[in-house]
Amino acid sequence: ALAGQALGKLFIHNPEIQFRKKTKAQAIQALHNAIEVCEELCDLGDVQSYGISTWQGLFEEVSLADLVQTTTSSLGPNHRFRNLQLPVSLVRIEEVVKAWFKNCGPLVEAKERNMMVYAGAPLHNGALLNMINAAFIRFFNPSLTAVQVAINFVRSTRLVNAILVGTSTRDHFD
Questions:
Q1: What is the full DSSP assignment across the chain?
Q2: Of 30, 50, 144, 160, which one has the fewest beta carbons inside 10 Å?
Q3: In 150-166, which positions are buried (b, 16+ CB within 10 angstroms) versus exposed (e)?
Q4: What is the largest CA-CA distance in the chain?
Q5: Each residue of 162-174: pLDDT tens digit?
Q6: What is the dihedral sign for C-alpha 63, 13, 86, 6?
């Protein structure tokens, strides 16, 4: 393990790119190969668990349930594919709508599999700060700022374990 400690989580980043460059079967195989490497790293004690981090449309290509089943079928029930990171925000609301109103989609599927869910881009790269106006803030909670409204919306899904916030400028937080 690195410096005597295992990395807590490892994410395979943007696997949806494979679905644009290859057939679905080839993309699933490539992801399966990556997952086998992640399992080996877990077995070596270098990583505790792993998952996928997606930005655009992976779940238009394949459901999380099918993805986990297909890529881990040879690994048995004790695989360490336990994490999902995807964008969730007032702009990227489609997965929240599926979860809240249809009880389906990757957020629900992840919870059914006891996966940790990480919501990325809650400020939608800062774009939300100019979209959330005073009327919306008053509707949501007049004592909050635009940043707090955006983050509290993601929290309100109750399907995420952690919210990842990043910025290239401090202005996003003012």
A1: -GGGS-EEEEEEE-THHHHHHS-HHHHHHHHHHHHHHHHHHHHTTSEEEEEEE-SS-HHHHS-HHHHHHHHHTTT-TT--EEEEEEE-SSSS-HHHHIIIIIS-SHHHHHHHTT-EEEEE-TTTTTTHHHH--HHHHHHH-TTS-HHHHHHHHHHTTS--SEEE---SSGGGG-
A2: 144
A3: bbebbeebebbeebeee
A4: 54
A5: 999 876 777 655 6
A6: positive
Do residues 132 and 101 touch, judged by C-beta distance below 8 A?
Answer: no
Put simply, whether the predicted model's pTM sits higher than 0.85 gets the answer yes
* Gap between the Cα atoms of 20 and 89, Å rounded: 24
Structure tokens at 79: 């695989």
Q: CA angle 160-162-167, nearest 5°?
A: 120
What span, in angstroms and rounded, lies between the C-alpha atoms of 147 and 18? 33
**Residue from 62, 9, 67 nearest 38 by CA:** 9
Summarised one tens digit per residue, pLDDT across range 86-137 is 999 998 888 889 998 999 989 999 999 999 999 999 998 888 888 999 999 9
